[in-house]
Amino acid sequence: MEVNVLFLLFSLLITIFSLISSTKSSSISILGVTPQDENYYQTETIKCRNGSKKFNRAQLNDDFCDCPDGTDEPGTSACPHGKFYCVNVGHLPVSLHSSKVNDGICDCCDGSDEYDGEVKCPNACWEAGKVTRHKLKKKIDIYKEGVTIRKREVERAKQAIAKDKEELLKLKNNEKSLKGLVKKLKAHKEQIEKVEEKERLVKEKEEMMKMAVDGKSDDEQKESSSSTTLDSESNGPSDEPSVDQKDEYENTEGMPTDGSESTEGLLREELGRHVASRWTGEKTEHQVEEVSPNKYNHGDNNEIPESTGDKDHENSDDANHVRKDYEDSTTRLSDIQERIASLTEKLKQDFGMEKEFYFFYDQCFETKQDKYVYKVCPYKDASQEEGYRKTRLGQWEKFENSYGSMLFSNGDGCWNGPGRSLKVKLRCGLKTELTDVNEPSRCEYVALMSTPIHCLEGKLEELERKLESMRSEQLQGGHDEL
Amino acid sequence: MKPLAPLLLSLLFLTSQTVLSFKREEFRNCHQTPFCKRSRARSPGACTLTPHSISISNGDLTATLLSKNDDQIRPLILSLSVYQDGILRLKIDEDYDHPDPAAPKRRFQVPDVIVPEFESKKLWLPRLSTETVGGESSPSTVVYLSDGYDAVLRHDPFEIYIRDKKSGNQKLISLNSHQLFDFEQLRVKQEKQDSDYTEDSGSDDNWEERFRSHTDKRPYGPQSISFDVSFYNAEFVSGIPEHATSLALKPTRGLGVEKDSEPYRLFNLDVFEYLNESPFGLYGSIPLMISHGKEGRSAGFFWLNAAEMQIDVLGDGWDAESGIELVKQKSIDTFWMSEAGIVDAFFFVGPGPKDVVKQYTSVTGRPSMPQLFSIAYHQCRWNYRDEEDVANVDAKFDEHDIPYDVLWLDIEHTDGKRYFTWDPVLFPNPEEMQKKLAAKGRHMVTIVDPHIKRDDSFSLHKEATEKGYYVKDSSEKDFDGWCWPGSSSYLDMVNPEIRSWWGDKFSYENYVGSTPSLYIWNDMNEPSVFNGPEVTMPRDALHHGGIEHRELHNAYGYYFHMATSNGLLKRGGGNDRPFVLSRAFFPGSQRYGSVWTGDNTADWDHLRVSVPMILTLGLTGISFSGADVGGFFGNPEPELLVRWYQLGAFYPFFRAHAHQDTKRREPWLFGEKNTRLIREAIRVRYMLLPYYYTLFREANTTGLPVMRPLWMEFPSDETTFSNDEAFMVGSSLLVQGIYTERAKHASVYLPGKELWYDIRTGATYKGGKTHKLVASEESVPAFQRAGTIIPRKDRLRRSSTQMVNDPYTLVIALNSSQAAEGELYIDDGKSYEFLQGAFIHRRFVFANGKLTSINLAPSSTSKSQFSSKCIIERIILLGYSPGPKNALIEPANQEVQVELGPLMLEGGRGSSVVTIRKPAVQVSDDWTIKIL
């Protein structure tokens, strides 16, 4: 039994010891170490994380870098790659680059990064945390509503797509039957025309014979007319002086591309502007382009009319009637085909995982910034307008960043560089609107667009978790949320 | 390398670039410049002047120069003066006392360049001696110059030279040995004199001169000066910036040089997309040439003249056709031509390259002591768009843990290019913006250019107009030229009153929105005039006191820089060191701030040429200079950008900059790996800041540049003479750039007899050898010379400001006798207290296994003191065999641990090195540490 007693005693001792050590480690935590990492530092000899070296506990946070990866100096600025963890009770914990420890600047809201006495950092976590939580809550509210709207949009899109597909099917059927009709009418028309042609030939012959009686005069006429034709052909190039004029115009006024521009003879101000333009790339004469209304139209006549129209034309004979029918039908057919093409084109687009961007297809969004109006038409193009001057920022290319942004590229060319481009970054918001267009690099534009379509459920959950964790931290800190 | 290859390469480069950008036809070549064309056509032996009535007056030798023929308008007056440390000064000007025809005005002598202290170094000549030098028919007048040197004035033919008594009276440097001297005298235009312009008129007797659509009235007729200068026993000549060309100047005339080759031009110009390998004049001018030869002998020649200058380096056989007797002693002959001004020339005897630079900077002034922040990393772009952009860029540096000290705002920050104003939409709260940066210890620089928008609602313009402060055109109306704001006028900065008025504009009250952390950038001060002849001001424009622009052109930017710098000095109550970056420069610019090499291009050739360009600036007094990292025009490939950071981190002035049409290129925009490489490059500079600051102080006291040609440190090593792709930082570091894409190897010549230590791996390389190294993408090759000690600060911070209290690391590189030494200079980094002795200056000496810290600061009783709490946290011994476990610190009598550790905490590779762990000695104290 002695063995048993000893064993019990021994295990009791171990339990006590481990209890002591665990309370010790949680009460005197190592400066700058995350709670998860504290266990790593429990041993007497500690390894550098990259395995380069070992160090003892006395060397931990002794303000001398033993491990170039920073393992031994989580709480000081001694190592270049270190990370300093501040608990920030009441707010969110943060990991700082160790270059910010004791640098005289308060980085952690709890002030724990400045402990050498050079600077006093008041604990601002509670106030800052409150503001952050407040903001976060507001954001979550928007997300919640946004997620609902988004769901509704996804549902609507689903129906609209189904409708489009249905229409497409119907159109294709119509196309098929209309093609049959056109074919029939064509045959009929050709038949009639053949008859007409025959009649015409007979008539012509009769007239020729009548003419032959009158003799030569006709030949002469023929000759002279053919010579006129020849003449006018040989005179062709000189008949188009405008081409030459245009060339000349381009030579003197256009921007030469070979760099051999002549600046002699320019007025002094023109010369100044001209030389300045080498650095700025601004054109001395702005290229002006008229804004033309969007040419795209829907084609409302996508239904085949039941009848081919008015029949009581006064002098309607069979031939004219058939011809008109034929023309009407081909027009209708091409209308339908056009509509089919546009629908097919539309349905080909990438509307997102849940087709959530479906309604972006036929919409344009505008925002005015200073003197410019920016217009973004998803799946089509984007432009910057100033009065009547329009600059194309790009044509639709694709979504990027897992439907987080829209990319327009190959816009109007830039001096000394490639074509313009625009990236539209999406944010969650209750209304779809374009905000904030910027040009961080010359001719590379970045815009922000808020839309419920970007209010993702996953992100909402993440935000809710974040708020939850902040609340629990704050509870630990002993504050009450007001 | 075969000489043809670079020529071919540069030709290829020329042709391809010319088509795209550089507008050669807009700039005059020598043939289109009458004075240059005519001077170049002169034959050796043409000078007919001889000195008469040689005497001593006011301690100077004076004489009258008269022509042997009767072709002189009035006599010329010559004077020779001698100054301490082997400096001879020669002046030649018109005789203004001559009554008929009297000179219509005084020719321009450049004021405010020579420092006042220099005059006090004049040695009063006691007597002249006349002798007939060996075998010559004509006598010479000889004066004592300095220990071992005489200055000699030979009478006929007229020649001035310095002879070295120690080498058997051999000539060192001479003027007019080939009798090319010519001095066109001022004339008065006669009523009926025709102003017709005839092309190719060899006599240059015309008054008006035309170039493209511009006419220069030349009211005093041609007034150029030219002469030849010879450097004896020289292997090469260097200097006369600014040209994008090699450090050793290639001949521009002579055998094997193309017939239409241009002389080196000194004419400050704003050149759009300038070319590599061209003698073409760029933004600044310093007419100082330094010769160097075997046995490490150097000499210098400086012509203080601010008019357009053209300088030929004459190669072998240049005078083959002249038939004149060949000079017996081997020499490099040069030919100097200037459009106007006087002869005010200085000869420097050396004997070493460092001595020449010291002598030159004793005339034009030592470089000013910069603030610590300004020698750290600068982030610039045309343009950081608005306050939000500024805040974002600033935050990104912190996010990526990359230090930087200064954020720059180019012209777009202003309200319509009216300097001293802010765009109200983009920068509504400039003070708040600067304060936010300042809270992180960072500074801001805004641009202020010399062209003033002609806008009556702009108070600066209104005031300048009312006060008559603008440069006038030839009809005496305010000169109106075109620049960024459109129609602009230019302040007449040669007038001290206007400079002082300008300086007041920088006070916090006048410059609304400025704060104490704001400093200034002067651009376009050549001056750049978009619609002027050669994109600058017409030569017949008029300055204060009737000075023609042609006479002071090259100094215009200098006076502007001076006025701005003095304004900042005034703003800070005289106790805040100004920081002003200037693009144009002139002798003396080193006293007012830093310069950069202007609008370079993002290609490998411009990376390569940045080194000789900066080295040349350093040789000619301007130590604080750099090139735009990344290249201003164009988009660098990430590899080029990284290489540029790796090299640029060693430039004295380290700034990244880019044209507004380039893609964004902040360090974090090229993927994780490139971000890391750029971060490491910048961090190396921050680690070495204590070493750099010590070197800047050395420059401030001696004139020696921070970045030096190898031959400045190893003057008699002939292999270094043609090397301008590697350079020394101070005397302890050697850096070799990598200038090609995907380089696999790098050839590095390491001079001297001692070892060199790779600064990252500690690997050793023998001196006196060219090593073929494997090129690493991590860094460019850099080595610490054995026998030196480099102080570092290994802790990295947001900016240099937060490093003040951080501990030091000393890297001791032992030489073959297990010894080394180095220095460390510390002060408050911003004020002028150091002038009163408020600084720490230590010398560290390692010998016999013991490191000693010795005070170098005068143990003055002065009231100003500078103290530092900094300790030394780590001492690294390169070349010390491992083994010792402990070291003893005295007088504390304390033992510390010796162990093996990394040479660099970040970016370091290679085996561990002997490290004294935490000696924790105060940097300001005397102590010794003995390895046990």
Describe this structure in words.
The complex is a heterodimer of chains A (482) and B (932). With 482 residues, chain A is an alpha+beta fold. Chain A is 44% helix and 16% strand. Chain A has an 8-stranded mixed sheet with strand order 5-6-7-8-9-12-14-13. Chain A is elongated. With 932 residues, chain B is of the alpha+beta class. Chain B contains 15 helices and 52 strands. In chain B, the strands form 9 sheets. In chain B, strands 6, 7, 8, 9, 10, 11, 14, 16, 19 and 20 form a 10-stranded antiparallel sheet that branches. Chain B has a 10-stranded mixed sheet with strand order 43-44-48-51-50-49-52-47-46-45. In chain B, strands 1, 2, 3, 4, 5, 15, 17, 18 and 21 form a 9-stranded antiparallel sheet that branches. In chain B, a hairpin with a 5-residue loop joins strand 9 and strand 10 (170-175). In chain B, helix 8 crosses helix 10 and helix 12 packs parallel to helix 13 (671-687). Chain B is globular. The interface between A and B is large, with 49 and 53 residues.
Number of strands of chain B: 52
Termini separation of chain A: 61 Å
Poorly predicted residue ranges of chain B: 1-20, 193-202
Q: What is the helical fraction of chain A, as a range of percent? A: 40-55%
As residue ranges, the low-confidence spans of chain A are 12-27, 220-260, 285-316
Sheet of most strands of chain A = 8 strands, mixed
Structural class of chain A: alpha+beta
Strand order of the largest sheet of chain A: 5-6-7-8-9-12-14-13
SSE sequence of chain A, one letter per element? HEEEEHHHHHEEEEEEEEEEH
Q: What's the overall average pLDDT of chain B, rounded?
A: 93
Helix content of chain B: 10-25%
Q: In percent, how much strand structure appears in the residues of chain A?
A: 15-25%
Number of strands of chain A: 14
Mean pLDDT of chain A: 78
What is the terminal-to-terminal distance of chain B?
Answer: 51 Å
Assembly context of the chains: heterodimer
Estimated radius of gyration of chain A: 40 Å
How many H/I helical runs of chain B? 15
Supply the helix-strand structural class of chain B: alpha+beta
Name the biggest interface. A-B, 49 and 53 residues
Region (Disordered) (chain B): 192-217
Signal peptide (chain B): 1-21
Main location (chain B): endoplasmic reticulum
InterPro entries (chain B): Gal_mutarotase_sf_dom, GH, Glyco_hydro_31_AS, Glyco_hydro_31_C, Glyco_hydro_31_CS, Glyco_hydro_31_N_dom, Glyco_hydro_31_TIM, Glyco_hydro_b
